[in-house]
UniProtKB/TrEMBL annotation:
InterPro entries: FAD/NAD-bd_sf (IPR036188), FAD/NAD-binding_dom (IPR023753), NADH-Q_oxidoreductase (IPR051169). The lineage of its organism: Bacteria, Bacillati, Actinomycetota, Actinomycetes, Pseudonocardiales. It comes from Pseudonocardia hierapolitana. Residues 4-298 form the FAD/NAD(P)-binding domain. Pfam families: Pyr_redox_2. SUPFAM superfamilies: FAD/NAD(P)-binding domain. Signal peptide: none annotated. One of its GO terms (biological process) is aerobic electron transport chain. This is NADH dehydrogenase FAD-containing subunit.
Amino acid sequence: MKHRIVVLGAGYAGANAAGRLARRLHPADTEITLVNVDPEFVERVRMHQLATGQDLKPRPLTDVFAGTGVQVRLAQVTAVDTERKTVGVVDADGPGEIAYDTLVYALGSAADDCGVPGVAEHAHHIAGRQSALRLRARLADLAAGETVLVVGGGLTGIEAATEIAETRPDLEVSLAARGGLGDWLSTKSQSHLRTAFDRLGITVREHTDIAGVEPTGAFTADGHAIPAQVTVWTAGFAVHPIAAATTLQVSATGQIVVDDTMRSVSHPDVYAVGDAALAPGASGTPLRMSCASGVPTAHQAADAIAARLTGRRIPPNKIGYTAQCISLGRRDAIVQWVTPDDQPKPSAITGKTAARLKEMICKAAAWSISHPTSMLPTRRRHTILTQEPLATTV
C-alpha cells in the first residue's frame, strides 16, 4: 500500500514541499496530494503590484504539477482530525475527507486586524489575491488629490505605500508606523528609505498607534483623526485557525510547534512549514513569517520526510537568513544584508541595482514553483518498511 502524503496549501512553502517530495520519493511507493482552494499559484510577494494595476503571470497548479506525480485537489480545507488522520474538505462536489499517513500543514497566514475596531469593515489589505484585486478596483476609482493611508511600517507596508505612490503620483499617500520608519534597518538603508519616501511624496507618521478605522480614515490612540478615502491595513498577519482547533501543540499565535525537522512536537506524522510553523531559527528564536522562511522550511520538512521514509540520515537544519529585500516601486529597492538570525549588517545594496536583484530573487522563487521537478535533488528513492526517525544526522 502506498504511503499517503497530503500537503495542505500551495503557497511558496506548500508548493515547494510537494515538488521536493516528488523529486525525493518514488511514485510506486508514495501518493502525494496537494490541496489548495485557489486553482493558481499566487505570488504573494507581488500582491502590492497586483493591487496597483500590474498583471501577474498565471500559474495554474494543474499545469505546474502535470507529470510530477503530485495530485492537485482544488478544495477548501475545513478541518484536520489528527486522531483519525483525515482532512475535511469542501470542493465542487461538496464536503469530503482525505486520509493521510503523513501531513504537511502549509495553510499559511492571512491579514490580522489586531483587534482594532473597523479594520474588517473599512480597511483593505493585500494578504491574498482577491483582497489585492478589491484594492486595485478601489484605487482605480480614486480621483486625483484623494488620499490613501497605509497602516503598518513593516516590509509589506513600505512596499505597498511606495508602489501606490509611484503608480499614482496624483494621490496623497501616507504611512502610519507604530515605530520609526525602517528602524530595524542599517543606517545606510534607513537613509535611503527616507530619501525614497521624500522622492515619492509619501507622508510618514512615525510612532503612531492606530486605534480604529472608519469609512473616512483612521484615528489614533490619542484621538487624532487621519482622513483617508482608502485605508490599507498591513499591520500584521495571523495564521489559519484550523491548527488551533486540533490536538496539535500550538503556540499562543496558533502556529504549530515543530522541531528542527519541521515535525510537530506532539504528532510525529504531522509537519508544518512556512507561516503555519513556530520553527526555531539560527539563534533559537522563531523564524519570521516570510517567503524567506517558507521555502527553506519546506525543503527541510520534505528532506526529513524523505529520509525517514527511505531509511536515510536526516539532514541537519541549516536555516538562516541572508538578506531582507524591500521594493520601493519598480525602479528602486533596498537589499539589506543580515546575519543568519536576521539582524542587519551595516552593508546594503540600494537603488536600481537592488531593484534588479530583488526582481531576480522573486523570479527565481516563482520559477522554482513552476518547475517543481527541475531542481535538485532528482533521485527518487523507494520507501522502506520502518518509518521511524534515524538518530543521526549529516
